Please model this.
Amino acid sequence: MSSEKHILITGGAGFIGSHVVREFSIKYPNYKITNLDKLTYAGNLENLVDVEAGDNYSFVKGDIVDEAFVDELFTKSDFDAVIHLAAESHVDRSITNPNEFVETNIVGTLNLLNAAKNTWGENTDGKLFYHISTDEVYGSLGETGYFVETTPYDPRSPYSASKAASDHLVRAYFHTYNLPIVISNCSNNYGSHQFPEKLIPLVINNIKHNKEIPVYGKGENVRDWLFVQDHATAIDIIFHEGKLGETYNIGGSNEWKNIDLIHLLCKIMDSKLKRAEGESEKLISFVKDRAGHDMRYAIDSSKLQNELGWKPSLQFEEGLTKTIDWYLANEAWMDNVTSGDYQKYYENQYDK
Ligand code: NAD
Ligand code: TYD
Model:
């Protein structure tokens, strides 16, 4: 049985965070999990209905950009570890509003680092600050090659630039203050509970409602897709076995051109919705390209596989089918998220 630990998970009401909270709170009943989340448009406590009653789980609503609040939370909570996922995470939003990305992703991370450093002091035995990052910090690949942990950073969107800055700060705190840190950089995730502004849930939802599927540019950009539960498993392994100060790349070895992925989604959706073959493809609509659209991401995760024994568990079609089944079976979740009803609920619930 694992020893007792109090872990702060930030951004636990979001897409990946909710899977990490579920993984840790169920697998490690001895760990006390505190989920700190601001509940932005992307944070939704409905993502956690199956774990919120657990004795070892609690939720705190708060903003990591609020330094005094973060300091007070650390002072009173005696955290042994932090798994930091809270972020503004959508590239398109970062193009229209970069400032918020700088605030949350850079200043918010800095506040957490300072609070951990100040409360842990010299006594960092068994302590860990685990920063969750993205492969987008490495920039954009051409047709060949892979991102490895030593690939120079070359972020090209305000989102990836803000994540790159936060990665640098986390590493700087390791070298300068001996803060025990580890970082992982993951490729695109897919699965249940993802906000439908990201490609896969957006396409599923639009097909269901017979709405156009917006394909940026020619649809030739390539992403490396990983099932979100495989990311949560990797985080579990890195949290427990990762070497301090190290970076681990996590990826699915599963590259898809956007247009090919959309065709596959259309095919599976036609069969699930009992539509004639080819019906959903008629919804495809090529639209103006994203500014500075990164061409290709592809991760080499051999360090994580060879040193810590992780590997992805699912074939893509199986994962996509599970994902589609989840969205179709959880209509109420999707309707709440798209209508914004859940946000009104939180305003009434928390912001009196
Ligand atoms: P998400 O947008 O679904 O969730 C982010 C969560 O952070 C939300 O619950 C939101 O309410 C919370 N949050 C935002 N600002 C906050 C603030 N100021 N204070 C406290 N909480 C705040 O994002 P996600 O897709 O689950 O990504 C989680 C992390 O993983 C991010 O750090 C992201 O950069 C990283 N990541 C994501 C992917 C991906 O494919 N989605 C891939 C690699 C890495
Ligand atoms: P997204 O899910 O936003 O993730 P990221 O930009 O972080 O990789 O987008 C995945 C890919 O899909 C990306 O190349 C942009 C493209 N895309 C579209 O073509 N149409 C859309 O409506 C969206 C949201 C994304």
